[in-house]
Amino acid sequence: MKAIMVGIIASIFFSSTFIINRSIDLEGGSWYYSASLRFFFMIPFLLLIVFFKGGITPVISEMKKNPNQWLLWSFIGFVLFYAPLTIAAAYGPGWLVAGTFQLTIIAGVLLSPLFFISNEKNGWQKQVRQKIPIKALWPSLFILFGIFLIQMQQSESITWTILLVSTLPVVIAAFAYPLGNRKMMELCEGRLNSFQRVLGMTMASLPWWLLLFLYGFSKEGAPPTHQIYQTFLVALFAGVIATVLFFYATDLVRNQPENLAAVEATQSGAVFFAVLGEMVLLAAPIPGLSSLIGLGCIIVGMIVHSFITSRNQKLMAQGRILKS
């Protein structure tokens, strides 16, 4: 239950990504800078946090062991996650981007067979490939149905071209984020805490962000002041606070596929908070009945996930008691 609550709090901060990126686009900012500047701004925050939470030396040591793996999975988990989100913000409203990104709920479940967990049998530790947790899949589908209702009503005022261009990049991001996150957890094997892992992935992705920044500078010139300020806020709220909270939540249940899927499902709360934020800050219209029903479906789906998580934890505790 603790992991679920942490995940919901993370979704509140994560929703700022969709709201602020949309605001930046409406004011004429380029997605090149929205993506790259966020990660530049994250570095000093993370260095300070990690200095007091576990130290920087272990991060450097882990990165030296497998530099290619760090570069690969940081590219997938951060670059292929965030760059497509900023591209999508240039073509569609924040609620559409936030809603489509909830495909990560299903993506996280479907990616389970790509990972292994340790299983003790007859006194031997064996790496066993994870299975797709069906029990965790159906509540996720219920959440996505709610998101579908929201998008159906909102898409009435959007052309199919905008819908397509703003959707495909987010589909890529939805699969890249859990894939990169889980692969890095698997690579680190608990040797780094969530703060250290976020710092390592941010540093490993810097070469890609530098290239993107330089490319944007050659095409657009220097970024405007308002974009620098707003991107700084995204870096603080979504890049540091939300990411660290989410990674911490997934760390709590990293060897429990169903519970991990439940934590990833909490990110659907970003849809609700994005809708609310756009209404308050960007004067977006109040959602209609269909959207309200959709939000209700999302909340119910999250409650079901929480119930499954709580029940699994009780069963695991009972199993440990019986074994002892």
Automatic annotation (TrEMBL):
Top-rank taxon: Bacteria
Keywords linked to the UniProt accession: Membrane, Transmembrane, Transmembrane helix
Transmembrane segments: 31-50, 70-89, 95-116, 136-152, 158-177, 198-217, 229-249, 261-283, 289-308
InterPro entries for this protein: EmrE
One Pfam family matching this protein: EmrE
This protein's name: Multidrug resistance efflux transporter family protein
